[in-house]
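so my prof wants the structure for this chain in the tokens format not the other one, which i didnt know existed until like an hour ago. anyway here's the sequence
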Amino acid sequence: MTAALLAALSLGIRCTFAHAQAATAQLSGGDRSTEAAGAALERMARDNFGALSEAELKLVHAAPRRALLWVGPTNDINSPANDPAHAAEWHPGRTIRAALIRWLAADPAARPYVHPSGVGVGGAKIDGELDLSYLTLASPVTILSSAIPEGVDFSFARIPGLDLSRSTTGPIVGDRAVIGGDLILTAGNFGPTSLFRTEIDGSLDCSGAAFVRGDDPLSLVEATIKGDASFHAGFTTSGVVDLRLAEVERGLSFNHARFVGAGDNGLNAERAKIDGTLYWVDITRTPRTELDLANARAAALWDDAASWPAPGRLFLEGFAYGDLSGGPADAPSRLKWLALQPPGYRPQPYGQLARVLRERGSDIGAVSVLIAKEDARRRQRELGVGERLWGLLLDATIGYGYRPIRALWWIFGFVALGAMLFRFGYHERAITPTEPAAYQCFVRDGEPPPHYPPFNAVIYSLENFLPVVDLHQGLYWRPNPRHGSGGRMRMLSGTVLRWYLWLHILAGWVITPLFAAGLSGLVRPD
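here's what i got, hopefully its the right format
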């Protein structure tokens, strides 16, 4: 039994040792394979480019590995030694020719030796324009904290991903390119960038980046971004971010963004489509910062009042949004927001805001916005005097039909005022009976005959104000122009009361039908 146990133990040890040897051999083979690939790339690179710089030699040997090559004195991304703003002071050994990077990324002979993670380098100075235009790459390209003074051209290219974070570049052209993953332009200083009709299957991240060169620093006209488009953490531009006709399938976010310079700047998202939320928060702006959302669409809007542009710099005509996810959501604040548009009557922004407030459960706020819309319409210069007066009447009496109960206060006020005036007029004998016999008795005794209907100031006022209402007062009593010129109410003569009675009746014929029309909704503009 002991012999068998020892034999089994000896066999297990031999098997374990054999597996360890195999694993070591495999690992060593992998290292040798990577080294062989690097050597092969070096030979081909020398054949194509001649002598290689120190950084170029490191890059061709690093390309077969899944690692980012730092060619500077440190691999600390935050080190001043890797700040591309000082690339002019860097040692020449950190220079890599742009053509070599293109060759590693795209050449059919070099591609099998490059790791699937793609070409990656940091802290380098790229000599020449990095021209990736019209190429179809199998791997992404990553260039961090590097200087590319001649810029990057990847127009009409198909690239799995492109990361130029913390780099300083010349012009960037990516028109009609297809980026299979993310396009990352964070924390760098980039030249004029054009991404016309570029398709980005991932996200676009420009957080912390500066686009402050050229007349058109960042253009994404008709671009398609299937992820988020982020302009955060100190994103800075001296021009207009042009997103006209762009499509963003998630959120478009400007958060802690800075717009600078003496010229026009801001965001032009005219006719853009944003399937997520549009954020406009914590914006540093100038008097010439604009926010153009004309005919754009967004699932929701999140902003703050401090970030709104100056008067005349907000364009909202045709802007459709589903909700106010953050920021001011009350009618008075949002009416101040609408007032930042250029002068002129634009009904759509009022209607859109009213719908959103109503869907949020703020019916009172929605009504306030709709009334403000009619006020803005009434102030149009194109309207005639008659139309303006009619609008003013509708506003004062029934709030354009949105607040018909307002007419009740007018009715109550006229009836109360009339009752008071008619009561004083009766005591001053400015209101007298219409029948001759009763009139003679009233003049002589100050009282009508016992059989004559007595005067009631409230009923008299109510009957004369309400159309088609007969309470048997107006037929028997009338203001008399020959009476009421003396006494305690010297000015309250029969003539004055007669003129007031006509006004009283006319007001009733106007306000009462408007009240009924307002309750039925017949006069509402919508």
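also thought this was worth mentioning. The radius of gyration is 41 Å.
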